[in-house]
């Protein structure tokens, strides 16, 4: 028998517990802001009037079924769509309040500030050292050899790869395992000291251990960088991001705190997608 | 709600909800029997209730295992996640209600040779009917995913609390009047306390249903009843 309390006043001790509502993080000035962004590939419109803020030092994940426009949107953020002849971008995107589609803006410099990591690890066919050193060198970030070595070591350390490769920096980057190659690409991206890192399904080609390492890394990088990640793994979005944006058929359907999106989304399309009801 | 692309996932969730309904029905029956055993001093019925609790515990484990398997296999999200977590929580509350019913049955055995005061008997009977009604209503609310009904169960808990307090005072009076009443009254007091606790579990389930359907925790401020 557990019941030793005779006192009626103790009667409702456990029945009326209800945790206080968690206050939502107030949105600070966004690092990047997209307003009415539309993208056409020739005659086909792939993205429709997307308004989205990318908050500083947070991870925002973009989710949605294949062909929903999330990667298209991601590529707008560092003008990677410029490389596609038939792509036409309209609308307004700012980085720290500055229009990134301004004609006077140097695209190479933009891509140094807004770095990118791709789905498949794509190290250059060069040594591990050269993979990381390449960016800082062409951007003139290091004047002496020692500076360059320092940048390479720091970047590899930040990417959590240094200890695994420090004795073989001269070996080709392509000789590393898939997970190591992806972290090498992340080291390469952060070597030029970007402010925003875009990641397009960075773990889809990795095993669970390598994925865990990259996710751990994303969490650490958040301190110094703003991260936008496209992912097909709902669990990954739930784990790594603070905010989540759901795309469907080229529209931004819903955007909000990740915790809310995965326990109680407001839009039925989000609900259906994350619970596996349509593909 | 439309169906999952993976049909076996739907089946697993349906099975989980069906098991909760089945367990709820069993717990209701056990509680009804326990109260009858107490009021009619039927020791055979009391024995049956005590033995029957094992089956409830068994169902509790099964539901928990099934829910854990769903989490491991499907990584449920949103509504599905709430559905799975609700099954775990409700089966836990039902298991506790089963235990409380078993305790009442044990008390029934302990007082079977004593004469029960008519007034007290009616008091316990009334309290028990309130408890049973709460349990039945909240299980109905689960079956139909009816938040309004769950909230009304949650609010009605006041009635049980008030009834319990008045029964408590009454028994206190009897015990002070004649110390020979102490034995019987103590047993009945425990039974009343058990029923009052069952009411609390019904409110827990009502809260779980609200969360399951709306995705929001029941707000304390908006619905809190006055202290009992």
Automatic annotation (TrEMBL), chain A:
<dbReference type="InterPro" id="IPR003439">
    <property type="entry name" value="ABC_transporter-like_ATP-bd"/>
</dbReference>
<comment type="similarity">
    <text>Belongs to the ABC transporter superfamily.</text>
</comment>
<dbReference type="GO" id="GO:0005315">
    <property type="term" value="F:phosphate transmembrane transporter activity"/>
</dbReference>
<keyword id="KW-0813">Transport</keyword>
<dbReference type="GO" id="GO:0016887">
    <property type="term" value="F:ATP hydrolysis activity"/>
</dbReference>
<dbReference type="InterPro" id="IPR017871">
    <property type="entry name" value="ABC_transporter-like_CS"/>
</dbReference>
<dbReference type="InterPro" id="IPR005670">
    <property type="entry name" value="PstB-like"/>
</dbReference>
<dbReference type="GO" id="GO:0005524">
    <property type="term" value="F:ATP binding"/>
</dbReference>
<dbReference type="Pfam" id="PF00005">
    <property type="entry name" value="ABC_tran"/>
</dbReference>
<feature type="region of interest" description="Disordered">
    <location>
        <begin position="1"/>
        <end position="30"/>
    </location>
</feature>
<protein>
    <submittedName>
        <fullName>Phosphate transport system ATP-binding protein</fullName>
    </submittedName>
</protein>
<dbReference type="InterPro" id="IPR027417">
    <property type="entry name" value="P-loop_NTPase"/>
</dbReference>
<keyword id="KW-0592">Phosphate transport</keyword>
<keyword id="KW-0547">Nucleotide-binding</keyword>
<keyword id="KW-0067">ATP-binding</keyword>
<dbReference type="GO" id="GO:0016020">
    <property type="term" value="C:membrane"/>
</dbReference>
<dbReference type="InterPro" id="IPR003593">
    <property type="entry name" value="AAA+_ATPase"/>
</dbReference>
<feature type="domain" description="ABC transporter">
    <location>
        <begin position="32"/>
        <end position="274"/>
    </location>
</feature>
<feature type="compositionally biased region" description="Low complexity">
    <location>
        <begin position="7"/>
        <end position="19"/>
    </location>
</feature>
<dbReference type="GO" id="GO:0035435">
    <property type="term" value="P:phosphate ion transmembrane transport"/>
</dbReference>
TrEMBL record, chain B:
<feature type="domain" description="PhoU">
    <location>
        <begin position="125"/>
        <end position="208"/>
    </location>
</feature>
<keyword id="KW-0813">Transport</keyword>
<dbReference type="InterPro" id="IPR026022">
    <property type="entry name" value="PhoU_dom"/>
</dbReference>
<dbReference type="InterPro" id="IPR038078">
    <property type="entry name" value="PhoU-like_sf"/>
</dbReference>
<dbReference type="GO" id="GO:0030643">
    <property type="term" value="P:intracellular phosphate ion homeostasis"/>
</dbReference>
<dbReference type="GO" id="GO:0005737">
    <property type="term" value="C:cytoplasm"/>
</dbReference>
<keyword id="KW-0963">Cytoplasm</keyword>
<dbReference type="GO" id="GO:0045936">
    <property type="term" value="P:negative regulation of phosphate metabolic process"/>
</dbReference>
<feature type="domain" description="PhoU">
    <location>
        <begin position="20"/>
        <end position="107"/>
    </location>
</feature>
<comment type="function">
    <text>Plays a role in the regulation of phosphate uptake.</text>
</comment>
<keyword id="KW-0592">Phosphate transport</keyword>
<dbReference type="Pfam" id="PF01895">
    <property type="entry name" value="PhoU"/>
</dbReference>
<comment type="similarity">
    <text>Belongs to the PhoU family.</text>
</comment>
<protein>
    <recommendedName>
        <fullName>Phosphate-specific transport system accessory protein PhoU</fullName>
    </recommendedName>
</protein>
<comment type="subunit">
    <text>Homodimer.</text>
</comment>
<dbReference type="InterPro" id="IPR028366">
    <property type="entry name" value="PhoU"/>
</dbReference>
<dbReference type="GO" id="GO:0006817">
    <property type="term" value="P:phosphate ion transport"/>
</dbReference>
């Amino acid at each position: 028998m557990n019941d030793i309390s005779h006192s009626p006043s103790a009667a409702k001790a456990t029945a009326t517990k209800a945790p206080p509502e968690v206050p939502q993080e107030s949105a600070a000035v966004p690092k990047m802001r997209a307003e009415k962004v539309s993208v056409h590939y020739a005659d086909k419109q792939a993205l429709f009037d997307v308004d989205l803020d990318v908050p500083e030092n947070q991870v925002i994940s973009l989710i949605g079924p294949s062909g929903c426009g999330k990667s298209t949107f991601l590529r707008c953020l560092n003008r990677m769509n410029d490389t596609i002849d038939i792509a036409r971008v309209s609308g307004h995107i700012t980085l720290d309040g500055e229009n990134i589609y301004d004609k006077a803006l140097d695209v190479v410099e933009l891509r140094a500030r807004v770095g990118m990591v791709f789905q498949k690890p794509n190290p250059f066919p060069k040594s591990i050292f050269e993979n990381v050193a390449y960016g800082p060198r062409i951007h003139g970030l290091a004047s002496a050899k020692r500076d360059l070595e320092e940048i390479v070591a720091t970047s590899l350390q930040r990417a959590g790869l240094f200890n695994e490769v420090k004795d073989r920096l001269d070996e080709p980057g392509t000789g590393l395992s898939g997970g190591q190659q992806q972290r090498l690409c992340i080291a390469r991206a952060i070597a030029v000291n970007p402010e925003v890192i875009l990641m397009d399904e960075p773990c889809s080609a990795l095993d669970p251990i390598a994925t865990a390492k990259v996710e751990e890394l994303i969490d650490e990088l958040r301190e110094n960088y703003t991260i936008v990640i496209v992912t097909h793994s709902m669990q990954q979005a739930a784990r790594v991001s603070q905010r989540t944006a759901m795309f469907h058929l080229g529209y931004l359907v819903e955007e909000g705190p990740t915790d809310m999106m995965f326990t109680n989304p407001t839009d039925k399309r989000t609900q259906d997608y994350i619970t596996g009801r349509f593909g | 709600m439309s169906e999952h692309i993976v049909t076996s996932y739907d089946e697993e969730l349906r099975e989980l909800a069906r098991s909760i309904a089945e367990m709820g029905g069993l717990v209701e029956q056990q509680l009804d029997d326990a109260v009858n055993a107490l009021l009619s001093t039927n020791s055979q019925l009391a024995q049956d209730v005590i033995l029957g609790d094992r089956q409830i515990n068994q169902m509790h484990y099964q539901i928990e295992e099934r829910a854990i398997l769903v989490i491991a296999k499907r990584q449920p999200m949103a509504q599905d996640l709430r559905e799975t977590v609700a099954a775990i929580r409700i089966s836990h509350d039902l298991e506790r209600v089963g235990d409380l019913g078993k305790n009442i049955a044990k008390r029934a055995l302990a007082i079977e040779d004593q004469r029960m005061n008519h007034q007290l008997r009616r008091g316990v009977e009334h309290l028990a009917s309130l408890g049973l009604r709460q349990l039945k209503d909240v299980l109905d609310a689960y079956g139909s995913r009816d938040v309004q009904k769950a909230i009304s169960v949650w609010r009605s808990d006041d009635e049980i609390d008030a009834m319990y307090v008045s029964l408590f005072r009454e028994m206190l009076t009897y015990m002070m009047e004649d110390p020979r009443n102490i034995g019987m009254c103590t047993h009945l007091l425990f039974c009343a306390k058990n029923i009052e606790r069952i009411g609390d579990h019904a409110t827990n389930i009502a809260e779980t249903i609200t969360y399951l359907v709306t995705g929001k925790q029941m707000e304390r401020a908006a619905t809190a009843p006055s202290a009992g």
